[in-house]
Amino acid sequence: MQLDELKGIGPRRAKEFAKLGISTTEELIRYYPRTYLDMTNRVSIREVAHNDMALIACKLVYVEPIKTRGKFKTVRALLEQGRDNFTAVWFNQPYVAEKLREGEYLFYGRVQNYYDRISLVNPTFERLDGNNRLKGLVPVYPLKGGIPQWLVRDGVAKALAVETPVSLVPAPLAAKYKLSPLGEAFRKIHLPATQREMQDAAERLAVEEYFQLIAAFKLIKGDRTEARTNRYTVTEREVADFEKRFPFTFTKGQQAAVRSIYDNVHSPQRMNRLLQGDVGSGKTAVALTGIFMAVRSGYQAVYLSPTEVLAAQNFAVLQRAFPDYRVGYLAGASSAKEKREIKEALARGEIDILCGTHAVLQADVQFCRLAFCVCDEQHRFGVAQRNSLSEKGENLDVLVMSATPIPRTLSLIFYGDLDVTTIPDKPADRVPVSTAVIPPRKYDDMFGWIRQEIRRGRQAYFVCPKIEDDDGQATSAEELYEKLRTQLPEIRFGLLHGKMREREKDATMSAFKAKKIDALVATTVIEVGVDVPDATVMVIYDADRFGLSQLHQLRGRVGRGADKSYCFLLTETDSETAKERLNILKSTTDGFELAEKDLEMRGSGDFLGTRQSGKFLVGIKNLRYTTNAIFTAKKLVDEAFERNLDAARIRAAAMEKYESLKDVVLN
Predict the structure, then answer these.
(1) Which of 80, 141, 143, 359 is least buried, going by the fewest C-beta atoms within 10 A?
(2) Residues 452-489: pLDDT tens digits?
(3) Which are the contacts of 483, defined by CB distance < 8 A and separation ≥ 6?
(4) 157 CB-side CA count, 13 A
């Protein structure tokens, strides 16, 4: 049913819901709360730790005139709770000022406490008066524009009355696994009587979503066993001689990985393999050895990188490793003439190894005898992109690599179409990176120490969670760049973030590698692959806002050379959970251990968030569910396919939703 047909909504309110991407009653009941207010859990503002979320009952005394600074607008209100005075502030939400009036309110938001100056940042709010009926657990929805919480709650209640959701899980399996009715789960996720009801509903809805997703995985990926077409002639002796080109001895893990690839390319089936290893485990050397097996056998190979910064770096590595072979480079920033010449030479077979970015995937890039593909940092590429690359040759051998350790349990599900090879060890000469959590009172000491490191010829990274100062809740790269240049004028700073043009990024990274820049202020664009041996210091602002695996990846950008390296985690939170997570990172450098711990602490709902899983999991990102929901969905899908239960209906529903979202990724 269209939303404007729902009683009490109408065309005007339907336009408000359209701002949230909601136009039907089905979409509305699938718009899950991002949190819940426990109306019995109101607290005193003085009891709340810095950076924690809280529900505050208070009096609104005054709303200040809107302040404008550049393109940003700020609304500030003065609040009272007993004898305590504090403020609420909203960034880039000028419409809030029109909704606030003097009187009693409930505010829910993040509390910040700087030198006894307490404020609530971007809080949601509810007017408290005689007509207020909020009781028990009250859903709080993510909002845009001026649409209020009460309107969404009212709309959801009406939509639940007219919608009868039908489960995609075949009835015999739903009964066997004792799944509750889908309609009941929708009602309890929006209107839970208890925390347990809400959690059970989230698990049931997650099972439903993952059932459809994993079914699409199966249909998109198909049968992974394909007969080999390309015949490799490379010998074990030749592979061993190639390994001697590297200035280090392969670890046992690297040797085992090379053996897996060698056996694979000499087997009757083509290779479709995931190579995962921790930061600094030597995956690139293994991949280059695989490429050698192909070119030594007379075939072409391609090395695909997710960014031009990383592609340019890998191109230089390939040129050094293969001086007796012809290596080409193709990226979006290449000139029209360069692209034309590379494509023509490639088609004639005059290039043995092509290194490039997504530009390699274009239809007019044709190979002569392509046999071996490497996808570096594979979580930036998905099934559709890997498949389009595979179509450029006949039954290609594909090696996808990930430096992001994936919990073993999840890799079994999401990489079920790949053979998984893990490099568990690191080179013996790799010096561990020392990690420390730095409170605000120690910042000046840290800066003094960094000055000394840079005077010694070392370099540093300063990483922020975002690019621009759009909400005041986290340090931005642009803000920090200007601040540090003033605070540390003797240090040459550069700025790097995802909104810069590729040529600007390349120029900045080239200057950093050439030591024309001492310190790089960046977002997580430097998270993977960037290799600067003289960079020995990593400073991460608002470290509590990152996941453990992401922090580990950032830490891996230093410690690439022979010198001792350091990682400083800056945080201003008093949250015990955040402190526990950062102390775990401080205590171990094992990426796989951290990945499992991250999954355990944050839950799969966060681990498989928007970035990690593409657009298709956005709908359930607010649900809090365990990995058991994913495993249950996997069992249901396998059994449904094996028993051929409702096959046509499952195929139609899964492909209707996911056919245009084949870029399935996991970080």
Answers:
(1) 80
(2) 999 999 999 999 887 655 444 556 788 889 889 988 99
(3) none
(4) 11
| CB-CB contact of 280 with 559 (8 Å) | yes
Strand pairing report for 117-127 and 84-91: parallel
Grouping H, G, I as helix, E, B as strand and the rest as coil, residue 80 is: strand
Architecture of domain 434-588: 3-Layer(aba) Sandwich (3.40)
Q: In whole angstroms, what is the distance from residue 599 CA to residue 657 CA?
A: 27
β-strand 566-570 against 434-438: which pairing, if any? parallel
Report the alpha-carbon distance of residue 372 to residue 293 in Å, rounded. 9
pLDDT, averaged across the chain? 83
Within the chain, all domains assigned CATH 3.40.50.300 are found at 236-423, 434-588
Specify whether the CB–CB gap between 77 and 60 falls below 8 A.
Answer: yes
10 Å CB burial of residue 72 (0-12, 13-18, 19+) is middle
Q: Where in the chain is the domain with CATH 2.40.50.140?
A: 3-151
Q: Are 546 and 465 in contact (CB under 8 A)?
A: yes
Q: What pairing do the DSSP bridges indicate for beta strands 53-63 and 535-540? A: unpaired
* pLDDT classification of 124: cutoffs 50, 70, 90: confident
Cα gap 508→522, rounded to integer Å: 11
Size (the chain), residues: 667
Q: Any idea what the Cα angle at residue 290 is, between residues 238 and 340, rounded to 5°? A: 115
Distance CA 179, CA 200 (A): 10
How would you list the strands of the sheet with 535-540, edge to edge? 434-438, 566-570, 535-540, 459-463, 519-522, 493-496
Residue at token pair 């360069």:
338
Rounded Cα–Cα distance for residues 295 and 291 (Å): 6
Question: What's the pLDDT tens digit per position in 569-624?
Answer: 998 776 677 778 888 888 887 777 777 776 666 555 444 433 333 345 556 777 88
Are 509 and 461 within 8 A, CB to CB?
A: no
Q: How far apart are CA 31 and CA 144, in angstroms?
A: 13
Sign of CA pseudo-dihedral 528, 534, 536, 538: negative
* 294: three-class secondary structure by DSSP: helix
The CATH number that domain 3-151 falls under is: 2.40.50.140
Range in 163-177, 273-287, 433-447 with the lowest mean pLDDT = 273-287
Query: Structure pTM?
Result: 0.61
Is the separation of the CB atoms in 552 and 587 below 8 Å?
no
